[in-house]
Amino acid sequence: MKHVQKFVAVALMCTAVAFAPGPVKAETPADTLIQAWAIDDIITLDPAEVFEFSASEVLGNSYQGLIGYNVNDVSEIFGVVAEKWDVSEDGKTFTFTIRDGMKFASGNPITADDAVYTLQRVIKLDKSPAFILTQFGFNADNVDAMIRKTGDMTFEFEMDKPYAPTLVLYCLTATVGFIVDSELVKSNEVDGDFGYNWLKTNYAGSGAFTIRDWRANEAIVLERNDNYSGEAPPMARAIYRHIPETATQRLLLEQGDIDIARNVGAEEIAALSTNADIVVESGVKGSIYYLGLNQKNEYLSKPQVRQAMKYLVDYAIIADTIMKGKVIPHQAFLPRGFLGALEETPFSLNVDKAKELLAEAGLPDGFTVTMDTRNTNEITAMAQAIQQTMALAGINMELIPGDGQQTLTKYRARNHDIYIGRWGPDYQDPHTNADTFARNPDNSDDAASKPLAWRNAWDIPEMTLKADAAILEGDAKKRAQIYIDLQTEHQQTSPFVIMFQEIEVLARRKNVEGFIVGPSFNDNSFKAVTK
């Protein structure tokens, strides 16, 4: 690992240069892309477990899935590791053929064994994103029979129902569909753990880059994969540096110590836009900013309180100041651009309306509650703004800051009162968000499926059935209307204060070209970047 440590050291040395006295100007290595980003949300590098923004992007550049799509037109679906597929007459079985001649970074050939092992492993490990596949009727007991090898390069994917084919294919574009090197992973299994403890911090993929080193809250180093089946990346390596402070990212970018700053706020956007050496780019993401109100809290479980809090966010001010250029107001769980997205925004800051609702709830003097807040600049600033407007109606909100891992772990155990979060779609079908915001098949503490509705202890059997019906509707117009109706009901009853849709903004040195901002974070790509 000495070569890896060398390049991490090169990246980290730039900080010292940036703060050195005098007009010293640094320059990153010509064959190395260095990005500054807040990567404290990374918990694992295992495709069967990754469910966070930063790690999704890392895997999107280091693994390959069975299926892909055109990031400029997501309706254009194509095979990646899979060369082709057929659907049975009853609509329940997909037969996939693996593309010949592809290899993992290890040099092992990619075969049907790897695809079958990957998908079965997701089901048997049953980590957070496993629901993306278990929704098709798979479980640990039946998956060996339902996802089965039929030849060296072919396998079958048999489901319990004839789901919409595009839903199935989009689900396989998620990180759980990223194919792992079964021979390598099996060689690192311990006590039947499917290589889980090894793959959390190691790599077994076939993408454009290999993951060589991950130092939590410090850096990630990727290196060019010489066995990659596509065109070789121009960059020999790519390094992410954990720099959560937006002002520091701006300074490092202006000095030339980094190539791309990934967390630029409204102030940095304005300043960098006038710098001739810097280019500011943006792209609309499917990510949604929201508040999750835990229904285990005696105050938050009251319907009037949930609605009152939707009138105690100054959406316009936050969008125009704190998050200027980085969000658009949006108040439904499906982001713009998705089938059936609802674009109506019925809520605005209305303290009098909120006070009326709180009085109806028997809380005319308000109450005290906590909110877990990831300690990045933008989340903290939004949280403080919300704290101030909530106080106007007597809701005393105590902020509890923490890093990404801390706040996510607490939230996933539903030990919070309120969580300010950011949710990105796992795939490009509307069910991706309906499945988490509007479905909760089991509200018990030991439930197998733990979507956002579960995290907030919202028991919704009737809404769950409506969401289930949508995935079997073959008529696109009828299916879109189901989602519009669901979102309309959701806006008025849910414990989610949905606020904004994200616009991802990055700033790069003008000589750095070819970075792709995709609709999802695992679509963000730097494999074609040149300097």
From TrEMBL:
Organism phylogeny: Bacteria, Pseudomonadati, Pseudomonadota, Alphaproteobacteria, Hyphomicrobiales
Keywords: Signal
Domain Solute-binding protein family per the UniProt entry, residue ranges: 79-443
Family matches, as CDD domains: PBP2_NikA_DppA_OppA_like_7 (cd08512)
PANTHER family referenced in this protein's UniProt entry, alphabetically: ABC TRANSPORTER, PERIPLASMIC OLIGO-PEPTIDE BINDING PROTEIN, PUTATIVE-RELATED, PERIPLASMIC BINDING COMPONENT OF ABC TRANSPORTER
Protein name in UniProt: ABC transporter substrate-binding protein
Signal is among the record's keywords: yes
Species for this entry: Hoeflea ulvae
Family matches, as SUPFAM superfamilies: Periplasmic binding protein-like II (SSF53850)
InterPro entries: Peptide/Ni-bd (IPR030678), SBP_5 (IPR039424), SBP_5_CS (IPR023765), SBP_5_dom (IPR000914)
UniProt cross-references to Pfam families, sorted A to Z: SBP_bac_5 (PF00496)
Main location (coarse class): periplasm
Compartment(s): Periplasm
Signal sequence region: 1-26
Protein family according to the UniProt entry: Belongs to the bacterial solute-binding protein 5 family.
